[in-house]
Design goal:
Layout (H helix, E strand, L loop, with lengths): L1 H21 L11 H135 L2 H18 L1
């Protein structure tokens, strides 16, 4: 009711100011003149007609607008809830993927460490084989060098002895030595 009274008062004041602006430049119009009364009755009739004919459509229009806004709000709220649910599912999926990735990383690191240990062991075994092989070659080369040195020394001693014998023995001493050696050989055999 207070709303209607406020609306009526506002309308009257608006009509008065409209009337006053219309009368600008003419003599001042009285608020209680017949002209003003006619305009007031006209305005009041218009308000009654609007109230009688437009009240139901305006109320229905406002109610429909409220229902539409409420439905839109509920729909948006459902969309927000669905988006939040998808976000939670995504977060869960990301956490699972991070856990899986961490496991893969740990397995990869363990595999790398195992491979590293295998390569180191293999390298140590290879180094040991190389060391053993090298020592064996050194021993073989040393024995070969000793044998060659012995042969060389024996050959040189023989050549030196032969040279000395040739110098000290002449043809007759050589023949006598040969005869002695052959008689001893024949006695042994």
């Amino acid at each position: 009711m207070a709303q209607r009274l406020f609306l009526l008062t506002t309308s009257l004041l608006a009509a008065t100011s409209a009337f006053a602006s219309e009368a600008a430049g003419h003599e001042a119009a009285s608020f209680f003149s017949w002209d003003m009364a006619f305009k007031f009755i006209n305005f009041l009739g218009l308000m009654i007609l609007l109230h009688y004919f437009a009240k139901k459509p305006l109320t229905k229009m406002m109610g429909d607008a409220i229902l539409t806004k409420r439905e839109d709000f509920l729909e948006q709220q459902k969309l927000v809830e669905a988006a939040e649910a998808r976000l939670e599912a995504f977060k869960t999926q990301m956490a699972e993927q991070e856990a899986t990735m961490l496991k893969h990383q740990q397995h990869a690191l363990a595999a790398i460490e195992g491979e590293k240990a295998r390569i180191i062991a293999e390298a140590k075994a290879q180094a040991k084989n190389i060391e053993t092989s090298t020592e064996l070659r050194i021993q073989q080369n040393l024995q070969k060098a000793k044998a060659e040195l012995r042969n060389f020394l024996a050959q040189e001693a023989t050549d030196l002895a032969e040279g000395l014998i040739k110098e000290k023995l002449d043809k007759s001493a050589h023949d006598a030595l040969f005869d002695t050696y052959s008689t001893k050989l024949s006695q042994i055999s």
